[in-house]
Amino acid sequence: MDLDLNTAWFVLVMILLTGYAVLDGFDLGTGLFVYLAKTDDHRRLVLNSIGPIWNGNEVWLVTGGGALFAAFPNVYATVFSGFYDAFMLLLFALIFRAVAIEFRSQRESPRWRRGWDIAFAVASLTTALLLGVAVGNIAIGIPLDAQREYHGGLLGLLNPYAIGVGVVALSLFIMHANLYLVLKTEGDLQAQLIRATRVTVPVYVGLFVLLNVATLFVAPHVAAASFGKKVALGVIFLTSIAVTFNILRQVRRGNDGWAFLSSAGSIVTLMALFAVSLYPRLVPSRPDLVNSLTIWNGSSTTKSLGFMFVVALIGIPFVLAYTASIYYVFRGKVKLGAHSY
Fold first, then answer.
1. CB 29 within 8 A of CB 178
2. Please, are residues 178 and 198 in contact by the beta-carbon 8 Å criterion?
3. Phi, psi angles (nearest 5°) of residue 335
4. Alpha carbon 294 to its chain's center
5. Cβ atoms within 10 A of the Cβ of 200, count?
6. Is 214 exposed, middle or buried (0-12, 13-18, 19+ CB in 10 A)?
7. Residues of the chain with pLDDT > 90: what percent?
8. H/E segment holding residue 294
9. I want to staple 30 with a disulfide (CB 3.0 to 4.6 A). Which of 63, 76, 125, 177 is the partner?
10. Do 306 and 165 touch, CB atoms closer than 8 A?
11. What is the pLDDT of residues 165-216, one digit of tens each?
């Protein structure tokens, strides 16, 4: 049986974006904990917990964007031109975040360091919020004309549902970071972070439930899904519920590792819900779904998809090996040293 290259590339793009959400999600969420940390040493410990890995995590975003450009150029063109203002703001936040990490320890001045810590927190949390808003707009659809072009601006993207998804994404990444930092720290800082889970985990779980209820009423293509898709969505949704509530269970039992893995599982199942609800569309058109960009009308030629799929099968194992090796090398509790941030 011939391989459905369009579907294969849809799955591949979603896997890469999911990998980014799982890996970069927790280091975006650390922005809040850098801001809330009571001492400079605690702030340094939080920063150094992500220091060796944060830029490697962003490789997944670059790879996902590259895969979207290569496999679905019409989708890439519409999304990046339509969301131009939002993506420029996102890019600025990502750059400023990196600058803040590198600059904050270049001087001993407490005011200098605190200023860059605040900049890091604002840039990190802004990035998380904007990513959620982008996903929210894609989930419910954007107004596309007959040529499948979006002519709106930044304000048109700030609808209540998209902002709600942005808030949920922000709470998810903060919780994810909280659980990651519990794993990477010890002593007084770890005790403070364990207490913080009593707030971050329930807040996310509550917002998660509200988001899924709202999606059923707001996203027309989800409500009108075929029976087969509804079954798949139902199975993934129940799995997502189980994994998400397991975070609370593991936190209460003190199983930090399982709590973090459950948090990662919650992100994976949320992205799976997003992907299945979209398929075969990549950018639903609202209110007229006929104008939607799909895996067929938005894709490259079959020959291009086939060639690039072979390249992807060769290249992705290197990305996985690099990621795994970095996390293995820098496993364990974070310690401050002469070369720490």
1. yes
2. no
3. -125, 150
4. 22
5. 24
6. middle
7. 65
8. strand 293-294
9. 177
10. no
11. 999 999 999 999 999 999 999 999 999 999 999 999 999 999 998 998 888 7
Return the CATH fold of 5-184+191-278+285-329. Formate dehydrogenase/DMSO reductase fold (1.20.1630)
What is the C-alpha separation between 121 and 202, in angstroms, rounded? Answer: 22
Cβ atoms 326, 111 nearer than 8 A: no
**Three-class DSSP category at 282:** strand
Hey, which residues does 294 pair with through a beta bridge?
Answer: 281
277, 225 Cβ separation under 8 angstroms: yes
More confident residue, 3 or 89: 89
In this structure, what token pair is assigned to residue 334?
């974070």
One-letter identity of residue 22: V
For residue 119, what are its two tokens? 């900049």
Return d(Cα 124, Cα 221) in angstroms, integer: 32
What kind and span of H or E run contains 283?
Answer: strand 281-283
The 10 Å Cβ neighbour count of residue 1 is: 3
Cα distance between residue 334 and residue 109, in whole Å? 23
Query: What is the pTM assigned to this prediction?
Result: 0.94
Q: Count of residues for the chain?
A: 341
**Tens digits of per-residue pLDDT, 262-290?**
999 999 999 999 999 899 899 999 888 88
The residue written with tokens 């998804």 in the block is 165
